[in-house]
Amino acid sequence: MAFGSDKDQPIINRNLGRALDQASTGSSLNQLRGATIANNTGAGIPKQVTSVRATVSNANPGSTSVITVTFRRDPSDANFSVAYVYLRGYNGNPSNVRVASGANSPISVVVNNTGENVVISVQSSGNAGDAPLASSPTTGIKLPTSAAGYGVNSVGGITGTGIAPALAAFTGKTSIGPTNLTNDATTGGSSAVTVRGIQTIPVSNATPNKGDILRYNIYGDSQWDIASAVGRNIQLYADANSSPNSLGNGEVPAFIGTQAKFGALSSEPAGNSFTSAATASVNVTAGLRFGWGASLGADQFTYGTTWRVSQRIRMNNTTNARYWIGTTDGATGDFSGSAGLASDAPTRTMAAFRYSNGTDTNIQAVCAVSGIQTVVNTGIAPDTVNSKLFEIAWVAGSKFNFYLDGVLVASIITHVPAASDRFGLFWCSDNKNTATAVGANFHHSIITMK
C-alpha cells in the first residue's frame, strides 16, 4: 500500500462526506459553517425580540443620562443567546452603533446629554448567527440638554421618564403644572394640553368651518380669529402682455410716463415700467393712480374699511428723483399737469412712503392730515436693482404701521388719517425740475378690505 494515494482505497472512502459519521457530526458542521447566510432568517437564527421600549433618567446630572432598554424575547427560542443594543443619530452619527448587550431585559447604557433624537434598535443573536439588523425592532427617544436632565421636576415634584415619541411621560400625577412645558404649550392645569397661543398671542377657541383660516384681530378681540379664507382684495397687476388691470373694482388704472412691458426674471415678477422724458418739470412725470373716483366725485376707499395696502415697486433711479408710494386723497389733475404731489410736503391727507433725493438718505414713512406731516426714517436705503414690497397697515384708532419686504420699519401715531377719510392708491415720481428721466417698475398693488 502506498501512503498519500487513494487509488488503492475503496471508492466509498474517497468521499469525505461519506467517510464521516453524519449522524454524529451534523450538528458540529452547522456550528462551523452556520445555518444561513448573514442578514437572513432560517434554521438556527433566533427570533426577533418584541415590545422594545426605552426610558431615560439622570446619570451624572447636567452631563449624562442612562437609557434603559426593555424588551421581550420568546422563552421557548432555544437559538437565542444575547440581545445587542444599537443607537442611531447619537453624536450626529447616522449609522447604527452597538453600545450594549445582555442576555436579559433590561439593558442600560450611559450617554451624554446631547439633546438629540436617537433611534434604538435591539438585535437578537445566537450561536448560528444574528437576526437581521435591518428588520430588528426599534424605538426612539430624545436626550435631555438641560442642566437637570430628566428626573424630578423641581417645581411640581413630578417624576418624568422619556417615552418615544413624547418628550416625557409624567407618572403618578393627574395634571401637569403650567411651568412643566414652558415655551412649548400652556397646559392650564390639564393633562390634555391645548395650544392656546401663537407667540404669546391668544388663539380663538371658536369651532372652525372647513376651509377657514386664522386672521388676527378681525373682530377687535386682539387674538387670532377663525375666519373665512376668502377675503375681499382689490388687485392691480401688470404683466408682459398688457397695461395694468384691476380685479375687484371696475375702474381702469391711470398712468403717466412712457410704458414698457417686461417678462419675469428669476427673482422679479413680470410687470410694466413707466419712465418720464428727460425734460425738466415741476409736475409728476411718471406714475400710476387708482380709485381716485372721478366718476364718483370722491376717492373710492376709506381707511376704516381697509386693513392693508401692499405694492411691489422698484425705483429705477434716485438722482434728481422724488418718489411717493402709498395712499392719498388724490386729484385727477395730479397726473395731468399739476404740481400737487411733486413736493416733499403735499397739502394732502395721506399715508405713504417717500424718497426725495437731496432731502432723504433713506426711505421715509409719512402720515399727514391736510399737509401737516409726521415723518419717520425707515433706515432702509432705496434699491434700484431689486423691487421692494411697500406695505401700510391701518391699526384702528391708533396708528399706521409701515413695512418694507415684510419687516416693520415705522409706526406713526400723530397726524394720522381718520377712519372716515377717503383715499386712492398711487405711486408717482418727478425729476425735481431737472432734465432727468425718472420712473419705476410696477408689478402689483393689493388693497385688503374688511
CATH class annotation of the domain at 233-449: Mainly Beta
Considering DSSP H and I runs of 4 or more, what fraction of the residues is helical?
under 10%
CATH topology of the domain at 233-449: Jelly Rolls
Average pLDDT taken over every residue:
82
Largest sheet: 9 strands, antiparallel
The CATH architecture of the domain at 233-449 would be Sandwich
Helix-strand makeup class:
mainly beta
Number of strands: 31
Quote the beta fraction.
Answer: 35-45%
Q: Sum up the overall morphology in one term.
A: elongated
- Between the first and last Cα atoms, what is the distance in angstroms? 113 Å
The parts where pLDDT drops under 50 for at least 5 residues are 1-7, 9-40, 147-170, 177-184, 186-191
- Using only CA atoms, what is the Rg? 38 Å
Number of helices: 2
Summary tags:
450 residues; mainly beta; Jelly Rolls; nine-stranded antiparallel β-sheet; eight-stranded antiparallel β-sheet; 4% helix; 39% strand; disordered N terminus
Tell me what the structure shows.
The longest helix is centred in the first third of the chain and has 12 residues, at 22-33. Strand 9 and strand 10 form a beta hairpin. This protein has helices at 16-19, 22-33; strands spanning 50-58, 64-72, 82-88, 97-102, 107-112, 117-126, 129-130, 138-142, 160-161, 169-170, 197-198, 201-202, 213-216, 224-227, 233-237, 245-247, 254-256, 258-262, 271-275, 286-290, 301-302, 306-315, 322-328, 350-356, 364-369, 372-377, 388-395, 399-404, 407-412, 422-430, 439-449. The chain is elongated. Helix content is 4%, strand content 39%. The strands form 7 sheets. Strands 15, 16, 18, 19, 22, 27, 28, 29 and 31 form a 9-stranded antiparallel β-sheet that branches. Strands 17, 20, 21, 23, 24, 25, 26 and 30 form an 8-stranded antiparallel β-sheet that branches. It has a domain at 233-449: Jelly Rolls (Sandwich), CATH 2.60.120. Mean pLDDT is 82; it is low at 1-7, 9-40, 147-170, 177-184 and 186-191. With 450 residues, it is mainly β. It has 2 helices and 31 strands.
